């Protein structure tokens, strides 16, 4: 790849990274092209060198935001060597995750947008859901219920973060995270002891 092609690719990735952070924080309707390009240190005129339209940027930024979470989920699962699922649960339901939507899981912030979005966004969202389900199911050694348990776990994780961000009472928000984490870890411990 030539120097100018490498620079173009790096610039495009910088814009995608900024846009992915902004749509997780503000939703897909808020950030304007001029605003995003300015934040990337570029002019509005350079936008079309990288993207066909604002919709193209939002679709690609959504996919970028969704895919970025895979590495985070894998790292979270490795934090607890004795119980990878518990490590993932604790990291996902942490207050820092709730309080950092710009860098948090895009499944939470993009769910409603994906439901109303174009087919490309829905496909990127579904791909990430399936990736997470596979990752979570893979944490169970021999469980025949790994798939349904992964679906329940992921749904509870995403739902708990969404609810904890949406309520006004900070104490109640904390309680949602703590209660769901406790119940999921307890369920995990029960599943592990049943397999022994």
UniProtKB/TrEMBL annotation:
Domain of life of the source: Bacteria
SUPFAM superfamilies for this protein: Homeodomain-like (SSF46689), Tetracyclin repressor-like, C-terminal domain (SSF48498)
Keywords: DNA-binding, Plasmid, Transcription, Transcription regulation
Residues of the HTH tetR-type domain: 9-69
Pfam families: TetR_N
DNA-binding region: 32-51
PANTHER family with a match to the protein in the record: TRANSCRIPTIONAL REGULATORY PROTEIN (PTHR47506)
Name of the molecule in the record: TetR/AcrR family transcriptional regulator
């Amino acid at each position: 790849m030539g120097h100018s092609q490498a620079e173009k690719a790096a610039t495009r990735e910088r814009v995608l990274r900024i846009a992915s952070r902004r749509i997780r924080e503000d939703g897909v309707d808020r950030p304007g092209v001029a605003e995003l390009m300015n934040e990337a240190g570029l002019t509005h005129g350079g936008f079309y060198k990288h993207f066909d339209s604002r919709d193209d940027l939002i679709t690609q930024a959504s996919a970028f935001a969704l895919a970025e979470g895979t590495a985070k989920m894998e790292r979270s699962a490795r934090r607890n060597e004795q119980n990878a699922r518990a490590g993932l649960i604790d990291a996902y339901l942490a207050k820092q995750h709730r309080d950092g939507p710009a860098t948090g899981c895009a499944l939470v912030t993009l769910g409603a947008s994906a439901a109303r979005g174009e087919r490309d966004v829905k496909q990127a969202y579904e791909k990430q859901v399936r990736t997470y389900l596979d990752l979570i199911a893979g944490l169970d050694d021999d469980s025949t219920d790994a798939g349904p348990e992964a679906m329940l776990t992921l749904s509870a994780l995403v739902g708990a973060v969404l609810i904890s961000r949406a309520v006004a009472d900070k104490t109640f928000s904390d309680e949602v995270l703590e209660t769901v984490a406790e119940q999921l870890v307890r369920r995990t411990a029960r599943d592990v002891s049943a397999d022994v």
